[in-house]
Design brief:
- It catalyses: L-alanine = D-alanine.
- One of its GO terms (biological process) is D-alanine biosynthetic process.
- By secondary structure, the chain is an all-alpha fold.
- About 25% of the residues lie in helices and about 0% in strands.
- The chain has a domain of about 35 residues.
- The chain is built from 2 helices and no strands.
- The chain starts with about 30 loop residues before the first helix and ends in a 13-residue tail after the last helix.
Length: about 60
């Protein structure tokens, strides 16, 4: 099962169903990798086809 759990803190205004960006222009995958101890390569290649992905670029 593809799942993720995120603690946004007690003052977050986010709710179930809101869009979440796991990494992107303002949060590079390398920064996420460093914070989680998982390589950027592994983060990207472990995504399955069930996860909707959108590439926005030049």
């Amino acid at each position: 099962m593809d799942m993720i759990s995120v603690d946004l803190g007690p003052n977050a205004g986010d709710k179930v169903g809101d869009e979440a960006i796991l990494w992107g222009a303002e949060l590079p995958v390398e920064r996420v990798a460093a914070a989680t101890g998982i390589s950027a390569y592994e983060l990207i290649t472990k995504l399955t086809q069930r996860v909707a992905m959108e590439y926005i670029g030049d």
